[in-house]
Amino acid sequence: MMGHELQPFLQNDMVCLRPLQAKDFVPLYRVASDASIWEQHPDKKRHTLSGFVKFFSESIKSNGALWIEDVENGKCIGSSRFKVLNDFPNAVEIGWTFLSRKYWGGTHNFAIKQLMLDHAFQYFKEVVLFVDFENVRSLKAVEKLGRMLSEELRFKKEITKGNDNITYRFQKKHSD
User: In this protein, which residues make up the domain named N-acetyltransferase (predicted)?
Assistant: First the structure.
């Protein structure tokens, strides 16, 4: 869809999201260098310098990556990304999200995804998230997100044979 913005500036009272920039490498690597962040992820080497260099380079080239900071202290807490999907008409993917362990299990992930979903639905009819079967932590986080947004969004979980991911699809319940 033309006219969409994949690297917006988004903010609420908890988090600020902005386009990821080359200058963000060192502070973002400080967060990503915690091996426990990646222990359930398919790419378990992202905490290493070489693994993160590859991830960061792909993030910058994607033109959809976002820096996430805590509004309260101004510190980097992670990153996420938008990607237009050719296989899903009029849809955008939200993925590649990681957060500092300090922010796990609380309300920051919801605050981040709420901002990203609200932004995405200005341009797309559907938002898709892919989560690896073995990433239990992320699976639980997306399931929680789906429950929290069930009043306003349709939330569909799809399992495809031969695929390593579970596909989660979000759509607005009511058209504006």
Answer: 15-175
CA–CA separation, 75 and 57 (whole Å): 21
> What is the distance, to the nearest Å, from the Cα of residue 89 to the centroid of all Cα atoms in its chain?
20
The radius of gyration computed from the CA coordinates of the chain, to the nearest angstrom, equals 15
- Please report, for the chain, the start and end positions of each structural domain, with discontinuous segments joined by +: 10-172
Instruction: List, run by run, the mean pLDDT of 10-residue segments along the chain (176 residues).
Output: 83 99 98 96 94 98 98 98 92 97 94 96 95 92 87 83 85 71
Using DSSP's 3-state secondary structure scheme, residue 60 falls into helix
Architecture category of domain 10-172 in CATH: 3-Layer(aba) Sandwich (3.40)
CA dist., res. 32 & res. 12, Å (int):
23
Please count the other Cβ atoms lying within 10 Å of the Cβ belonging to residue 142: 22
Residue 133 CB neighbours (<10 A) = 12
Residue 127's pLDDT is 95
Give residues with Cβ within 8 angstroms of 96, minimum separation 6. Answer: 55, 59, 65, 79, 80, 81
